[in-house]
Amino acid sequence: MFYERPQAQFSLVPGLDSDKFYVLFSSFRFIITLFEKLKKYLMLRMAACFSSSSIYACPPVYVISKIPNLAKCLKECALPGIQIKPVDVSDISLESAALNEEKINIIKEAEIAVCDGSLLANFYKFMPNLKWAHCTWAGVEPLIKVISQEPTFTLTRHGDQAFCSIMAEYVMCHILNCERQTKLCWRNQNSKNMVWSQEGKISNFRTLDEITVSILGVGNMASEIAKFLKVRGTTIYGFARTPRSSDRLGSFDKISNNLDDILPDCDYLCNTLPSTTLTSGILNASVLQMCKKAPVFINVGRGDVIAEKELVLALRNGSLSGVVLDVFEIEPLPESSELWNMQQ
After folding, report:
1. Model's pTM, two decimal places?
2. Contact at 8 Å (CB) between 252 and 219?
């Protein structure tokens, strides 16, 4: 079954139901985490300034993001004395992100910015006073691709423990959805004949202690996913550049640097790898033929771990029985993509 992560709905502040904060896979913890970082930064800045007996005014926080209502949400949560300055980027495409003179004049004074990574990659060169940029998502690849030397500002991203827990919940949610066939239940409920089906996994499913999950990567996110599943009895295999001894496995049952050690027996294959020259294209239809149990592929890492044409081929030849995709080789996923019309 092919999933794209649905949008979630959150109220900005209890009691305010007129405006809703719509954002992919985010949560209120993101805002709290963001302002914890902001508070620490401002305290350090103020301490430095007070030590030199100068009068200090908190710099405004520029919000440069395509996330709807993010600036408003930050204003509602802001510490006293912190000014939130939204920058309108609705007229800027992610592909070109060209700036006009008006936008340049707005952002050139920014010391603190909350930015989408793709926008920061095009904006930072026009922000000579930038001291701290916080990326709204975990990935900073757009900036890495264009920056040629170490930046003069501090760069942080949304990739703390709260984020890892959110992603672990996402992975577990879709494993349970696949095992319990909730999509089939929904289809039956909404069919013209109102089918009461007793077929397949609806009445005969596996529990989490009966499956094996292989995870590409053993970093913070992968370890959190492994921990979530291991306490429920799941067998967990990990893939890393270097194997681990038995005393360093954590929640993993095995960690190997060979794909042929972790692919044949997995019921679910979960990618958490970042985008690097070593990970790009690490999976393809030929490699996935090592999977003997036709696993479901869950990608919460980066889309270029497998080319779309290879993914489609693996679904068609039966190497994979389904996919759950949070990321894609090309984003946003083009309307012409074959994935839209595939039932898996």
Report:
1. 0.73
2. no
pLDDT tens for 188-236 read 777 766 666 666 555 678 999 999 999 999 999 999 999 999 999 999 9
